[in-house]
Specification:
Immunoglobulin-like, mainly beta, binds 2-acetamido-2-deoxy-beta-D-glucopyranose, 11-stranded mixed beta sheet, 3-stranded antiparallel beta sheet, 2 domains, 41% strand
C-alpha cells in the first residue's frame, strides 16, 4: 500500500517523495550529507494524533544499540533522545491533526543512514512504519552552459524498467523534467512537462532493461541549475535519488572570476 506525496526536504527545497507501509519492506530515501530530510509517516485513517503517543527509533547497527530519535506523547518529550539527534529533529505540529507524524532531520551525517521506524504503541491495531534512510556524500554534477549533460540514475538491482514508471523532477517537484510511464513519455504522448524542458530531454530506451533511467539534457542553461530527483514510485521498494546540477557560465567568465579571487 503506497501513500503518495509525502514531503521530503532537501536543503530549503521540498521534494515529493513516497513511502509505504510495512508489507513490502521499507521505502528507501536517499539524501545528500548535510541536507535536511523528511522521514514521512502518516496514518491512513488520518486521525488526530495531537494527544497521542508516537516514537521514532533507529534500528540497532553493528556495535550500536537501538536509538531514540524522537518521542511525542501529547507533546515533545526528548528526555530519552539519543545524543546524536539532539537539536536536529523536529515534527510538524500543525499536521498532527491529520495523522501525520513525519519528522525532519537536519544536517544529516553519513552515520544517520539506517532503518527508522515510526511506532504508535497505543493505537489499535498498533502501527509501525519503516523507512530506510541512505545518506550519501553529496553528488554534484558540474557542466558548462550550452552543453549536453547526462543525469545518471540507475537501480542497483538492474531490474528492467521498460514496462515501469520513473519520474524526473526539479526543485522539489515543482518542475516536471521527464516522465516515463510504460513506454509513454513526454516526447511521445504524455503531457505535463515543464515548458523550459520541452524538446531538450531524452531517456535511453535501450538502457531501461538494465534499470538505467538516466536522461540527457541538451543545451544546458544557467537556469537548469538545481536539485533533481529521479523517482521510481512503483517498485516493491520505492526509490528516489537526488543530486545537484550546477550549470556554469562560459569559461572566459570563470577565468575572470578566478583571477579576481
Ligand atoms: C546509463 O546509460 C547512460 C547513457 O547510455 C550511460 O552514460 C551510463 O553510463 C549508464 N549507467 C550505467 C550505470 O550503466
Amino acid at each position: 500500500m503506497i501513500h503518495l506525496v509525502d514531503l521530503l526536504c532537501l536543503s530549503l527545497l521540498c521534494l515529493t517523495g513516497k513511502t509505504l507501509g510495512d508489507k513490502n519492506g521499507p521505502a528507501v530515501i536517499n539524501v545528500d550529507r548535510g541536507a535536511e530530510v523528511v522521514l514521512p509517516c502518516s496514518l491512513s485513517t488520518k486521525e488526530d494524533i495531537e494527544l497521542k503517543l508516537f516514537v521514532w527509533r533507529k534500528a540497532p547497527q553493528k556495535d550500536e544499540g537501538q536509538k531514540e530519535v524522537f518521542l511525542y506523547d501529547k507533546g515533545i518529550d526528548n528526555r530519552g533522545q539519543s545524543e546524536e539527534f539532539k537539536g536536529r529533529v523536529s515534527h510538524f505540529q500543525d499536521k498532527l491533526k491529520h495523522g501525520d507524524a513525519s519528522i525532519t532531520i537536519r544536517n544529516t551525517t553519513l552515520s544517520d543512514s539506517g532503518e527508522y521506524s515510526c511506532y504508535f504503541p497505543r493505537l489499535q491495531p498498533r502501527q509501525t512504519f519503516y523507512i530506510q534512510l541512505v545518506v550519501e556524500p553529496s553528488k554534484v554534477i558540474k557542466v558548462e552552459e550550452d552543453s549536453d549533460v547526462v543525469l545518471p540514475c540507475s537501480l542497483s538491482t538492474k531490474e528492467d524498467v521498460t514496462s515501469g514508471l520513473f519520474d524526473w523532477r526539479k526543485d522539489g517537484g515543482l518542475k516536471e523534467v521527464f516522465l516515463y510511464d510504460r513506454g509513454f513519455h513526454y516526447n511521445i504522448g504524455l503531457v505535463g512537462q515543464s515548458e523550459e524542458f520541452k524538446g531538450r530531454v531524452s531517456h535511453f530506451q535501450d538502457e531501461l532493461k538494465h534499470g538505467n533511467a538516466s536522461i540527457i539534457i541538451r543545451n544546458t542553461k544557467i537556469s537548469d541549475s538545481g536539485v533533481y530527483s529521479c523517482d521510481f514510485p512503483e517498485l516493491q521498494k520505492p526509490q528516489t535519488f537526488y543530486f545537484k546540477l550546477v550549470v556554469g557560465s562560459a569559461p572566459e567568465t570563470n577565468e575572470r572570476s578566478l583571477m579576481m579571487t
